[in-house]
């Protein structure tokens, strides 16, 4: 039995009272304490009628009809076993109400004890998990009793329960333990939720029968401690995780490795295999623990380092652990090999600074000795980590280096040729070789790195294997074509670009030979093409992509004229093929989309290396282009680029991805000053500037699908950027360029003026969408005051009228509203001071009035719409609300609108816009608010702007709104997003400064003409919620003292105001924190807290919430972070630093 734990056993026996139809449970409550090796217990018998509203084990009686219990039990069965979707949905909804029921805890306990199907226990466990994090929650005593009950329940019944139920119950125990980890019992001076951990660990070693369950409990506990699940703040999660790390994690890891060590050499049956699997998972969870709060994502392998604490060093320095896992790989069945290698991956990534130089070399030798080519994917990850965590010069010192390189090269070649393996695995292998080649310049030329021997073979194997893959795709021998996933292809090509540059002449010669062979087949092709031609097209697609990657690799190496000649030869072949393909398009022969994407990829890589303004002009490549194609210089090459762009826009208008990539290429060309100057003089570019209509380019038509329409913004941004190079104050050139858009504006205005139901609404919507995207592109490139003034004069008033009318008519149509609001946001951005109109101009005021009008129109109608389904809420509501926030933020922070004139002359546009902001943010549920980064960032940034210049508005909002704002600010201060944290802290600082000055001033404030009067609602809100500011203070103090705060300066700003406004609470909080520490550390903690806010105890400076006061606390927070040690994270050595801060502050005050 689970005799190691303090016992609190609760069992239920069902008793049916037939006369009353009531279900009773006889509860046996056994309470005891383990002391000196024996257990004393007191048995209490009681009759409890379930469910009960009172605490766990209370004797209150509430009747539950036997039929209701049976219904509950049947619903659990129906949820998982029914084949009828309607029944399952009905059961899911009914059981969802269980978590919100006042009797949830008691009902779930009854389901655990007496459910007739295993799904009853599963539902009970999942429901209790939800209950723990619900608003009602479970109190401390109930959680403690439930935790102990779960352990006894698992100890008695785990062998008879299905694995999925045991796993769910173990997860529930882990969550209970995590949530109660910081709970301290002042009477017993213990942390009650921590006590079972050591007992479980001992049981894992001592009991064969219960070992598997104990290991599963520990594995899920370690995993849950490493997540935010169930915890409402980052600061609390970090406190829990760091405390668990320091107290138990190393011991748990040692337990897993010591038990795994016993497996080697022993016979392992099926039962023990389950234990070994659990131990491997436990050790893996320990090694993947977020040791330093970096919140790293294991899905990416770039610069992944396992940051184990220094105290773990002794566990790894002798190389025994890594050697043991390699031996386990040899003795365990194949089904466990993947998990063994996952552990080895983490062990290969231990931080370098954990070892001395000699220890690191010895540890690396153990890894190299153990590397063998099985369990393909995980092995590839191990290979990748070898170079990411160790330097080439260190690898070369290993005795087995030469043999390892030969084996790895052979393994890589065979793996590449076996193309049925995962592309992800290939990525890891190529990552190793790419990093090795990149390190060659940093080793001595005489050192035998052997890469020049193996890399050409790997390059050849890669090229030939991709071409074989192409043939298999055409013949239907493989289900997927890698060319469909352009992102993965480009990631692999980035690595190949470096590898192929090692002995580049050999690699290039192979490319040329293969390319010429397939080009000859393609050149002789007829319509319809033969099977050989189809294969050649796909092979050429790969070869064009590979050539683009080879050119890309030029940027990573020093100048080499010979290599530039090779690049010229390769690119000439691609351009010849592109010319041949485009010529066939004009004759009606269908092209190949993937080949076109490959052309764009190669053109983009060539642009980056040989056309970009930042790249020194390299003549040898142009010599080859002139020799083979007659392209004498960069201008001639730009002609090729522009013609390819025009061809794609003309013939591929319905291919959204290709159009997008084509316009991105045009955009990149227009960004370079020299290239743009040359571009704008080309006749083909002049054709674009004068004929950007749907008649010439079909993708500009309103019939184009909405996804393709998004590219129009990039198109017009590029054209306007080129136009602005020659644009002066002379309007005709601008007016001529805008004429197609002027015609569209006139047509839409005429339709709106008709106001007849016979109009094709969808066609008008598409016209508005296209117009807004086009104008937004134009606005993006209007960087100067002169050009923006031209644009605004063209926009006002017709375009603003179209925007307002559109959001009024089609409020619920996101496809229309989103482009309108994005255009509005772009128009409000004062980048490069483009909105600083002349003093005689009223354009800034007119702009804001139109912004206010459109936002209020949309907001009023949006709020009147019926509620949407949760899964559609972001697209149909939140996204547009976020755009409104961003627009107002740009307008308020742009410093181009004299907002005071609005109230002075009775214009309510500012007040209306701010009021609509409040209504909009109150619409978003709190649970959704921080789930969407854009909404949170725009909200907090806008709130900061309002607090800075319109704080009286915030003082007048309704008390419940003011309370909500403060609660959102509290959540924002501990966000993971630096933008949110910075804006939240700045807003809180300004609010506290305002409140403190208002509460302490002796003379009435002077009123300003045009200013909004102060309100009393903010004071009423604080009076109604007296604990509100104290909660904010507690959250921020915990974050500053115990967490690795990323935005230290921002977090420190509001602290002084909070402490002065909540001085009594702060003193009580300080004493509570000190009392929770061990006696020997209390003096240290008191010194730390005094050093942090010492100035708050000096009456002479309390009234002064000045820049210098906040600066002094900011200085102390910085010292606090730099001096954070292992005990609560502090050191008393910072005391002197805090006094120096204080003295500097006092000197300033005296001045």
TrEMBL record:
Keyword tags: Cytoplasm, Nucleus, Protein transport, Transport
Superkingdom field: Eukaryota
Domain Importin N-terminal: 91-155
GO cellular component, one term: cytoplasm
Alphabetical GO biological process terms: protein export from nucleus
GO MF, one annotated term: small GTPase binding
Localization, UniProt: Cytoplasm; Nucleus
Name of the protein in its database record: Importin N-terminal domain-containing protein
